[in-house]
Amino acid sequence: MSTAVAYRNPGLLAKSLTTIDHLSNGRVDCGLGAGWHDVEAKAFGYAFPSIGPREDMLEEYAQIMRLLLDPEQRRASFEGKHVRVSNAPNNPKPLQPRIPIWIGGRGEKRTLRAAAKYADGWNGAYIGPDDWKHKSQVLDRWCETEGRDPKTIMRTVNLGFYLGVDAKGAARAEETFRSHFGTGDRAERTGYLRGTVKDARRMVDEFRALGCTRLSIAFRNGPYDWDALEAFAAEIVRA
Question: 222: pLDDT confidence band, cut at 50, 70 and 90?
Fold first, then answer.
């Protein structure tokens, strides 16, 4: 859903997204986040500062991306504390007049404020309808502070997928869930599709009623139940 700002140079990401925009005939989105999974950073040798600097980077990154992805900007210059560009070109320009920038995360003090200031859309990760509603209301308040119409920000959710077609499949999915998260704090989060596909409908309908415009599914390490995914697509996504 989102690119952690510590993992890529903003100029490189802007050029990559522009290429994808051309290849997809103008359908690329830009997802950004402060990042949380330090294991990934260690695996590839990236510096992974504490959350405060990463939130600073997120705000700077969003501003740079907006400049580099703007078809009317010949070159971009931005001097931040953590990231910067100087007279930087991005040619050819994107096909879209405005590539949507999404900010993903749940942080109420910094992340949601950054979304209110810079983003076209917000994605809340691994939270159920009640938590999502609360975070969306926080985003509304930040929009008021920033003088932004809250209706101009699209709102989505990212959910883990642990469903089965029937009771046996649901039991297998639950075993996979426990193998991924154990019984710690992450296992208590509400943002997972669990049980059968029929059980998932109620949660999906709740999100729809709250104004959630997209639902993203996150797959972790397998095994995957492709029959459940096909049933979810047929019975819920197309409904």
Answer: confident
C-alpha closest to that of 208 among 135, 150, 157, 164: 157
Query: For the segment 58-84, what is each residue's pLDDT rounded down to a tens digit?
Result: 999 999 999 999 999 999 999 999 999
Domain extents in the chain: 3-159+212-224
According to the model, what pLDDT value does residue 186 have? 66
Pairing outcome for strands 84-89 and 75-79: antiparallel
Taking residue 41's Cβ as centre, other Cβ atoms within 10 Å add up to: 16
Q: pLDDT at position 30, please?
A: 97
Average pLDDT of the segment spanning 86-102: 97
- Residue 189 contacts residue 127 (beta carbons within 8 Å): yes
Condensed to tens digits (0 to 9), the pLDDT of residues 199-216 reads 999 999 999 999 999 999
Cα gap 122→155, rounded to integer Å: 5
> Does 3-159+212-224 carry CATH code 3.20.20.70?
no
CB 115 within 8 A of CB 103: yes
Cα distance between residue 202 and residue 197, in whole Å? 10
Whole-number Å distance between alpha carbons of 139 and 122: 9
Structure tokens at 19: 């290429």
Alpha helices in the chain (DSSP H): 10-23, 38-44, 51-68, 111-118, 129-146, 167-181, 197-209, 226-232
Would strands 84-89 and 101-104 be described as parallel, antiparallel, or unpaired? unpaired
